[in-house]
Amino acid sequence: MTEYRIKRIYEAPEPSDGLRVLVDGLWPRGVSKVDAHLDRWARDIAPSTELRKWFNHDPARWEEFRRRYREELRGHMDDLKPLRADIGRPVTLLFSARDAEHNQAVVLKELLDELQATNRS
User: Fold this and answer.
1) Helix or strand or coil: residue 90?
2) What is the mean pLDDT of residues 55-81?
3) Which top-rank group of organisms is this from (predicted)?
4) Number of domains in the chain
């Protein structure tokens, strides 16, 4: 069973991160590709530009953002397959937003956890 975690890309990488996957559509400011220590940049599963701009990290729009982003992800289930494979180590979903509670990595982790639970039943 894969353990999904979330972490800001600005935090130092650790061996316990396992597979490090950036889930932002835009490259984070001030982070070099070398310093990011990424295994994958999953741009295809990031929120659309339109949704990202609409949300604008406004907590008042959080529930609607979650609903809309999950709807977008339904069209990218094939792109989620590499993250859903049991690779024998954690998968850390990296994001650049300042708000650790209201961002796409939170929604993506929720969905991946749900999909994993469904597959076990």
Assistant:
1) coil
2) 96
3) Bacteria
4) 1
